Every structure is written in structure tokens, then in C-alpha cells.
What does this fold into?
Amino acid sequence: MILIFKTDCNLEQVVTKAQEELEKHGLSSQRVDTQSSCVLVILDDVSTVPTHIFSHIPGVEKVVRVGPQCSLAFDKGVSRLKIGDTIIGAGRPVVIAGPCSVESEEHIVSLAKTVRRCGAAMLRGGAYKPRTSPYDFQGLGLDGLRHLAQARAASGLPVVSEVMSAEHVELAYEHVDVFQIGARNMYNYDLLKEVGRAGRPVLLKRAMSATIQEFIGAAEYILLQGNLQVMLCERGIRTFETHTRNTLDLNAVAALKSLTSLPVLVDPSHGTGRRELVRPLSRAAIACGADGLLIEVHDHPNHSLSDADQAITPGVLQEIVNDANRIYDALTPTPVSAPSAAVTAGAF
Ligand code: PEP
Ligand code: MN
It folds into this structure.
């Protein structure tokens, strides 16, 4: 249940009074200030409490029972993120690119400059790697984070990197600009609350078997902490198909764009697991409305320390960036401008 307040009143006083009123009914609530309004989210089960009890609280404009269409993720105030000079969710698609894992300082610094030249707006790279096998490369940890910070300084690109625990959040805070929550941790509610409290932008990946509602629910955990800088990332789901590593669910992209206001990215690298499919699926993702792409790139793809089969070359990345811009331009209506004086004179 969410209480939305009138804006023409003394919000501080009214919200405090409302919280006291709720406490009298044994209900705890969380205040969230969004760009467009201020809301109180009631954290307890109110399914048996009649709505009029809440609508009669002074200053309350609207009482909303939370369903798929009326969550914090649907608030218009969460539709854009500004990270450095880049705005995600503003229209033109944004490409985030880099290796699956940070491999060495020299490597990530050089690759950061390369992906920037290809048109990427942000750098990705894992320092903590959630690997299916404990015998596979697990990432460079804190050294990897330090290398990312070097790459950020050398290229000017903001950095996205995965955190898997509260300890990682603390360690990564000074080195990265966006916390990535990986597919395996989408259900880790304590971690979601932790990145919510950290107040940094979050790139939240869909778990491999999560429904769209569960995905939105996970985002809601972060938003509820007052951190409205959340972007969703579709990265493929597990199906009966074995030719590809996952099945990229583009239904989810269009659905999330209508069910939420949050920016939606697509990861065609994990979504397919095959480098020859990354470019076509990138095109499809932009065509169906994705706000950006998260792509694994390596200067020598076959030598990648992790996820080599899905790594593309910088040359292909450049083509994908060009495709994304061309598709976006083709699908975006140009504003009708008044004909220039010269044309008008000639025409009449
Ligand atoms: C990654 O982006 O490197 C990664 C591990 O992704 P996912 O969590 O989607 O598997
Ligand atoms: Mn990977």
C-alpha cells in the first residue's frame, strides 16, 4: 500500500503525522521522496484493512494498493539516470562494453580506451566473478577494482562492476560508479537493500528463471531504500533450448517498458552465449525499445579468462554502436520544423 501526499501542504508535518497515525494501527511505513511526489510505503500486510482508513489521513491525496502498474518502479521520477556525462533512459541508446572479467591493469586500461573509441559510454568488467564452477577463474577481487579505477581515470568512462556481498559494496564504493547485481543475486534481498542504502546507481540483472513480476519486485527492494537510480537488464532466461547459453527474452523488454518507468538494458552476450549472435540480437533489442546494451568485448576474444565464446572484437562493437544509433534514428520521429525561408519562397 502506498500513500501519495498532496504537494500544497507542509509535507514534513503532514507526513510525520501520517506516520504516527499509521503506528496507532500497528503499521510501519517507509518514506520515499521521488522527483514527482512524496510517498509513504506501508510495509505491513494491509489486505484486510479498508482503504478509507488511509484516505482520511490529513494531507493524503491518493491511496494505492500496490500491483504491477502502481509500484515505485512505475513512478515517472525513476525513468532516467545520470552517470557522469551519460544519461540513460533519455532516448538515444547507451552502450556499456568491456571484458567479462578484469584481467590485468594494463589490459583493462587499454581496452577501456578502445571501447571508448568505438562509441561505448561506459566500461564494464568483473572483479568478483560468480562462476558456475569453483575451479574457474574467480576474478582479481580488490586488485581488479583498483585496476577499474585506473581504467576510469585513463579513459574518462564511468565503470560498472558486479558486487556479490555487503563487503564488496563497501570495497567497491570508491572504485566503481555503478553496482551490478548479477543474475545469481537477484533474489538476494539483503544485498538489494544494501545497494539501495549505498545510494549509487544499480544495474540489476534478471535471474535466469525469474518472472517479470519477480524482477520488478527485486528492483522495488532497491527503490524502497530511497535509491531511485536503478536500471533493469534482461540477460536471457533458461529454456529447453541448448544451442544458445540462454534465451534472450525480448518480450520482457517491451513488457518492462510498459510495466515500469525504469531504464531497461539488454545483455546479448549472456543472452546468447555465442559471439556470432551478439550483433543481430543487439539490433533487435534496440528495435524493441531497449535503452541500452551491456556487451562483453575483448581484444583477443578467444583468450578471454572467462566467457570467451561470447566475447566480440572491438570492430564488431563499433558496428553495433553504429547499428544502435541508426535503428534509433530510423524509429524516432523527427520533430516537424517550419520550412526554411528559402524553401517557402521557392514553393510559392
Ligand atoms: C556478467 O555480467 O559478467 C555476469 C556474470 O552476468 P550474469 O549475472 O547475467 O550471469
Ligand atoms: Mn560474463
Observations:
- The first strand starts at residue 2 and ends at 5.
- The chain has a mean pLDDT of 92.
- The first helix runs from residue 11 to 24.
